[in-house]
Write a structure and sequence with these properties.
Blueprint: H1 16-61, H2 72-88, H3 92-122, E1 134-135, H4 147-151, E2 156-157, H5 160-164, H6 170-197, H7 205-213, H8 218-247, H9 253-280, H10 289-299
Antiparallel strand pairs: 1-2
Protein name: Mitochondrial adapter protein MCP1 transmembrane domain-containing protein
Organism: Diutina rugosa (Yeast)
Pfam family, one: MCP1_TM
């Protein structure tokens, strides 16, 4: 007979296989929910992006051109043509602008909530250690567009946002910042004129000059409105460019640098256009019907 020898006992986890199966099922369910939500978020962003491109061309790109290239009348005509697209095409503003924006925001918030809930269920009670600031994965959302260290060739580091609010990426944070800026912009240029005159048909490029130069709070209000407008442009540019790169899996440093170039160009053009609108104010009529209407619009706002 073979001699029996003692062996050291070791624990057997009988429930390990059921646990693994349960985790696998949870991941499958999560994937089934998140995949269509991500598609909805992506294509609603593209839908809104059509409006955004048209609008940006008419209020940023063309107005930033010098007058020997495009006269004030030509700039206003471009603005009118662009506005005709999203104001007069039946259903475009409701579906392609407001609807697309709402769907994008709601789907994005839903994705974040679902992921957070999944992480909480998956998490084990282990001691928490701070995540390293240096990030080697260029696809990580925590690095945003890489920041200054990436541009200087010093590698990727976690963004300040992700360091102080774990799980919140710069892309998501820019979206949350964008919401109040965009709502204020809509209120100032769409809702307030409609509340005063019944519609916003009188709004033109000249109204932007009034917006930047007429405020119930005087120069302080004008300064706030100017910076809010530039902040809106920069945040929208950052969110749009970052989102497009992530949607299309463009994670390399060269793409991130290209993203910064686009953001910088758009913001610079916006600054040039804003300065042009401010400087042009002294040429505008201050006593006519349009002037009185624009003044009422501007002073009806919070700032």
């Amino acid at each position: 007979m073979t001699e029996l020898t003692p062996v050291a006992p070791f624990p057997v986890d009988i429930e390990s296989e059921p646990k693994q199966a349960a985790q696998h099922n949870t991941k499958d369910k999560l994937r089934k929910v998140l995949t269509p939500l991500a598609a909805v978020q992506k294509y609603s962003a593209y839908t809104f992006g059509v409006f955004l491109g048209i609008h940006a061309c008419s209020v940023i790109v063309v107005p930033s051109l010098p007058e020997f290239v495009a006269s004030p009348q030509a700039k206003q005509e471009v603005f009118e043509m662009a506005r005709a697209v999203y104001h007069h095409i039946p259903g475009y503003e409701a579906i392609g602008v407001v609807g697309a924006a709402l769907v994008h925001v709601i789907s994005g918030v839903a994705i974040r909530i679902i992921r957070q809930q999944f992480k909480r269920k998956k998490a084990h009670p282990q001691p928490r250690h701070p995540s390293p600031d240096v990030v080697k994965d260029e696809t990580s959302g925590d690095i945003g567009l890489g920041g200054l260290t990436a541009l200087l060739g010093m590698g990727y580091r976690r963004s300040i946002i992700s360091r102080y609010v774990p799980g919140l990426s710069p892309l998501a944070f820019s979206g949350y910042v964008l919401l109040p800026l965009a709502l204020y912009h809509v209120a100032k240029f769409r809702l307030l004129p409609a509340s005063v005159d019944g519609d916003s048909a009188l709004v033109s490029l000249d109204y932007i000059s009034y917006y930047l130069n007429v405020s119930r709070w005087g120069k302080w209000g004008n300064t706030i409105n100017t910076w809010l407008l530039l902040a809106l442009v920069w945040t929208m540019a950052y969110h749009s460019v970052s989102g497009w790169l992530r949607f299309n899996h463009k994670y390399s440093l060269s793409w991130k640098k290209a993203g910064y170039a686009v953001i910088g160009t758009v913001t610079t053009l916006a600054a040039v256009a804003v300065m042009g609108f401010k400087d042009r104010f002294h040429l505008l009529d201050k006593a006519g019907f349009m002037a009185r209407s624009f003044t009422k619009y501007a002073k009806a706002a919070l700032w």
